[in-house]
Design goal:
- The chain is of the alpha+beta class.
- The chain folds into two domains: 183 residues; 98 residues, Rieske Iron-sulfur Protein.
- It has eight helices and ten strands.
- Strands 1-10-9-4-3-2 form a six-stranded antiparallel beta sheet, with no helix packed on it. The protein has a four-stranded antiparallel beta sheet with strand order 5-6-7-8.
- Helix 3 crosses helix 7, helix 6 runs antiparallel to helix 7 and helix 7 runs antiparallel to helix 8.
- The N and C termini lie far apart (50 Å).
- The site of FE2/S2 (inorganic) cluster has 13 residues, from loops.
Length: 311
């Protein structure tokens, strides 16, 4: 009995040590939830106040429209790259004088402009996060917001006389914080899977496979089936069957539990909209389309196959 208890304690200890320190620390910070909720409320109110244009602007900020891919990660390269160049330019100027003084200032300003855009898109994506993902995102977002404030102060100091060394020290310190904040952001995407296509790891049938019979799919009702491991949602509209992946590409929501309006289904979790005709995302926060499938009915048997390979 005592041996069993020791073994269980050892297994629990091992399970604990397997979780990344960052995740474990963030998981313990319950005080982050009210902060995150307040930020999400502010973001939601901002877009609501914009009315109908707010919906389109939000879609552009997510990357659903225009880019067709998450916009925030693409923008973060600007401040990280520019601030890295800026810090190098500042210190080469101090050490050798072979780089013009203004080079560091310019790089800092470019980075600042990029960081503000990245922050706007980041807070937009943050609006639809929950649980551990949300806590991690708020740590990342607030740290980066602090960095933006420090860089802005450094830029203003550089415009005045006599405080350049302090301004350079400040932006160097901010760059070091960026490295930490970027690591948290990386964990958010690569570790937790935020903003990744939730259909990325599915495969499905490239030949027609049976998923039911005619009576299983009454007019106007969505039905979830499995096709060689791929969850599929099927609907019959005006007698014709349409199908696409049932797992929402945004965060894995069950599309068959969503709301159907004509050819468009709205995800029950964060209200992304997808067109049954071709799986296209027509409303964010999702930025990736659903896997489209061909459907056929032969002799009362319903079969589906992927319209194109998923990998
Ligand atoms: S899971 Fe977020 S919109 Fe579907």
């Amino acid at each position: 009995m005592e041996i069993d208890r020791r073994r269980i304690r050892r297994l629990i200890r091992q399970a604990r040590t397997r979780e990344r320190t960052l995740d474990r620390v963030i998981r313990g910070q319950a005080w982050l939830d009210p902060v995150a909720e307040a930020v999400q409320k502010a973001v939601g109110s901002f877009y609501t106040a914009l009315g109908m244009p707010g919906v389109s602007i939000k879609d552009v900020m997510h990357g659903t429209k225009v880019l067709g891919h998450p916009l925030h990660p693409a923008l973060t390269d600007i401040p990280i790259g520019a601030w890295t160049v800026g810090v190098l330019a500042d210190w080469i100027f101090i050490a050798t004088g072979r780089v013009p003084q203004v080079a560091g200032d310019l790089a800092l300003a470019v980075g600042l402009a990029g960081a503000i855009l990245a922050a706007l898109t980041g807070y937009t994506d943050f609006h639809e996060t929950t649980g551990h993902e949300r806590r991690t995102a708020v740590v990342h977002g607030l740290t980066m917001t602090g960095v933006i404030a420090i860089e802005a102060v450094s830029l203003v100091m550089r415009l005045g006389p006599g405080v350049r060394p302090a301004a350079i020290l400040l932006s160097t310190m901010a760059w070091l914080i960026v490295v930490v904040a970027a690591y948290v952001g990386g964990q958010l995407t690569f570790g937790i899977g935020s903003a990744v296509n939730h259909n990325a790891f599915f495969d499905g049938p490239m030949e027609f496979v049976r998923v039911g019979t005619r009576d299983d799919f009454p007019e106007g009702e969505m039905r979830r089936v499995e096709a060689t491991g791929l969850p599929v949602v099927i609907v019959r509209r005006q007698g014709l069957l349409h199908a696409m992946g049932a797992v929402c590409s945004h965060a894995g929501g069950p599309l068959h539990e969503g709301e159907l309006d004509g050819d468009v289904v709205t995800c029950p979790w964060h209200h992304s909209k997808f067109r049954f005709e071709d799986g296209r995302v027509v409303g964010g926060p999702a930025t990736f389309d659903q896997p489209p499938l061909f459907v056929r009915e032969r002799g009362g048997i319903v079969e589906v196959k992927l319209a194109h390979p998923l990998k």
